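Appendix C reproduces, verbatim, an entry submitted by the partner laboratory led by Prof. M.T., so that reviewers can inspect both the input and the predicted structure.
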Amino acid sequence: MGNFATWLNTATLPEFSDLVMKGFSHQRELIQPVAAQCFIQEDLTGWNSNTKRYDEVDVQTFARLKREGENALRAKAGVGYTKTMTARRYAMEINVSWEFRRYSQQYATQVQSDMKSLRDFIPQRFELNLSHVFTFASATSYTDMDGETITTSTGDGLALASASHTLQHSGSTYTNIVSGNPSVSQGALEAAESLFVSDILSNFGERRVLMANKIVTADDPTTMRAVRQILESTADIDAAHEGVVNTYKGKYSHVALPYLATSATGARDATKKKYWFLLAQYGSPQNSWQSYYGVFENENLKVPAPGNNGEDFSNDDWLYGTRGSMGQVTLSARGLVCSLAT
């Protein structure tokens, strides 16, 4: 196994400063963060608390007959479920010795720059956390790579994917799981759309309308090809002849999450590569599923310089660091339909 270190110095990484002239190959292409578009994103950098609470509010739908001489009926209104978002702060640091800075080969300059910048750690962790909302849709919580318990339940206390979501002011329930958990196909997509018609309900059990506009999958090639075929074919994909209109063409945007089919530590988990989700997400609470992503602290770098607190007075090491803080919470499953296909 090759050398690795959390402290960049000439002893642990001699390849950067020995007398052998060499070139360095540095594979640093990471995934492009895309998960944020699946949530209602809020800038909470000016928020004066590490928590924010979200409450559902519902009213009845239909006017009632007013007979002559009788008082009008009073409309019912009420608060539904609540959820609280809690900020979690993330960080990473690396030490660099004076000797490493002074004697490393000039060919390693770009590699050193990448190693010291730490610019990807926070965005990649935020992406992993958001993707795991879908990864662990069948659970009410999971234990993340830091050993922290992350709650993934919705306001009714059930998992995001549930066939028996409850309503606060009605005995009715609703499901957001496509029956049989099929792999993505035109027929399965129609079944998901049917749930958008039948199972979008207020807390009083009355119909509401949310229009799906995104299909979310992992980066499984077979699933991605099937989605592209559904959305991009010029004719109905099940038709035996040309000239038939594909009603799905351009109807949805496809979001492929590279970290969806992973474990809590970010390792590949092939059992979830066929998962797919149909959701309404337009960026506002009025017409989107109620899942919030809050940025409490933007990604920022702590860069040392001679004489500042990033330099150790005794040994001349420089310390590079990055910080960022986020929270995520899902108030309601309404507006998201899923198939946890295997």
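Confidence is low (pLDDT under 50) at residues 1-5, 19-27. Additional entries are available on request from the coordinating office.
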